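>> Question from a student workshop board

For tomorrow's exercise we were told to take the sequence and the ligand below, predict the bound structure, and bring the output to class. My setup keeps failing. Could a helper post the expected result so I can at least see what it should look like? The ligand is alpha-D-galactopyranose.
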Amino acid sequence: MNSVGLIHYNEEVSVYSLSCGNFSYQLRIGEREDLIHCYVGPRLRGPTADGSTADAPFIRRRLPVPYACTSDPADPSSSSQVIPSEWPGSGAGDYRVPAWRIEYSDGSSSRSLSVTDHRIVDGLPGPEGLPSVRTASGDRSLVVKLQDDAREVEISLYYGVCSDHSALMRWSSVRNTGSSSIRIRQLSSFSLDLPDNDWHCLSLPGAWARERWLERLPLGRGSFTAESRRGISGHQMSPWMALAAPDTSQDTGSVLAATLLYSSSFRLQAECSDYFQTRFMGGIQPDGFCWLLQPGEEFDSPQAILSYTTGGLNGSSAVMQQLIRQRVVHPDWSERPRPPLLNSWEGLYFNTTQQTVSELSAAAADLDVELFVLDDGWFQGRNDDTSSLGDWYPDRQKFPEGIASAAEKVRSHGLKFGLWIEPEMVSPDSELYRKHPEWCLQVPHGKMLQSRNQLVLDLANPEVVDYLADLFIGLIGSASISYIKWDMNRNLAETGSTVFPPEQQGEITHRYMLGVYKLADRITSAYPDVLFEGCAGGGGRCDAGMLYYFPQYWTSDNTDALERMRIQYGSSMFLPLSSMSAHISAVPNHQLGRSSSMEFRAAAAMTGSFGLEFDARDLSGAELISLKQIIRRWRAYQPLLTSGTLSWILPPDWDSSSPVRPAAGNAAWSPMREAAWMVSRPFPGHSHSQESREPEALVVYVQILTAPAVPPRRLRIPGLTDNTLYRILLRYCMQPDSEEITEEWQSSGEDLRYRGIQMPYLHGDHRIVYIEISRLQTE
Ligand code: GLA
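>> Workshop helper replied:
Here is what the output should look like for this input. Compare the format with yours to find the bug.
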């Protein structure tokens, strides 16, 4: 037996046991040198946690499998149709979706693989040129190597285990060990076969302005797929998917979740077989993908993060949020407070001139924000969205003295200066396009489809990446810019490149993404102190991969507060709170026309990386006072919001048809529409040693719509330590705009969980109660 920290190998039964925080993961080398999935579930700590019984149930018991295709006719149960696999291939009698498919030099695709080597290494090696979870001391990885019978390919499977997070990082790599070229048609990041099918599939489908609405469907026979074919992860589906036990609520139930550190076309899938086993896998979208691999070359899949918890959706999202904040977001930013900002988009749209910017930034300074962001409309000829992308120099009519001078004026108001860019795009009506039409993605007989009047630059072409890197590194330096909003306003369509031969055109979608990552890496590394915010028509490419480069993301173009709560709920499945940009915008809301109260808009925006986005030149005296108060309140909560985890007590707009039941057994029915969430640090349930009066949790209760003749909600608060005394401070206004009332008392964790807090009677819609909870003393 040998064991390196978190990874243990039991030689007698050839079982690897991976201890991933709160869960265990086991795999085994089978009799045929194949790789067999044994277990994923609650952490095993008992005498057989070393895997000594891991092979017992499925392998030793012979399953009658009539018509099975197998290399051992005497033993139909040896068919790959039923053996739980870690790395299923095609054409070998499995019949389910394979995890990988390679076209060998002889044109065939069905060869089995055998394990040739396996070792434990320090750290978390990651895929080349792709974002990955950053290594910390104590991390370990298992690397298993497999080879086909003809020794043409070697596949390495990576299993990374963190010393301080309940997660497993998986990815794969193919090396051509033969003497002829081969084609990779599919390469997953991970795959595993669960022994049962009693799962619900959770995914994050959406649309522009309706990103990441959590959906839950029972897994039936056949497949459930969450995928993108758009060349970006997209508004329509985020690269996150979970299998949850049918009884899963916000804070209880088994959840096996996966997210990809990948921002291009992807596929996550669950398939229930005829034997009621469930295959869960994910990686690059195989549709349209084909990578030519020459002898000696290697190709790496993106990395996937897997987590398993019995703590329901809050438990699952806490792992993802914490891991991504601490290990994916750049360490310089993971604990760094974000400046409250005012963005010019909804206030000025394209009417950005030296004059309007000066006026708006002066108004922003009056509001005590710290950063002014000049959004779209500042560069040559950009008066609407029909032209100019690619011509990244200031419009001389709007900014006769240039951007550096505009930035200087903004700084003279005591604010930092930020700028909007969209590096990957070009307008057909631009100097750049006229000079370099061959720099756009295109196919020989295609039409170059436009979306938002723009074309996509070919970032698979290193020359384009170099050009853009030099240009933007120069631009940021020239105006001492403190913040960049990196936008990307369309999906890819014709994914062809003029610089690659016909046989490599199936690589372009992935190569485009490698180019984006390289460009983002070069620009962000040149300016480690500049805060980068990702954006893609709102939250269209909001995924863990982009967060490796951009510490925060504009989650949606929809700034309506209620819609934002729904979007923030879904986004919180993986997106850390401090990465979730959220702004207070004007009423009636520009996207939906809905009017919501200031306190309601503030509550939605406050629980994120906070900003304002309206014409602050128009504010009334009362609005000014109330906004200043909001910003003061936000500043007081900022330490908690920077490193806190977002969990949900009542999912937003909750009713009995909502996909997930509330936490802590909160009543299942209420004629009021409501929401409640909690920001806590660290995640509730973890122990703390020091007494503190700083709120360690902030609960925001939202009465979205009031109702007649109902008792106010008794809000049960989960996750605090039962035998600990807490100080509770309630803040609310009885009527809109009336004096704030504060109430303070002490209560124990168990009291808050089981008895809960009776919410005050609140008059009207869109009403908020803030509940600050700080630890007083441990038993
Ligand atoms: C996208 C972004 C918006 C804004 C506009 C500017 O739609 O999501 O926030 O920056 O582009 O054109």
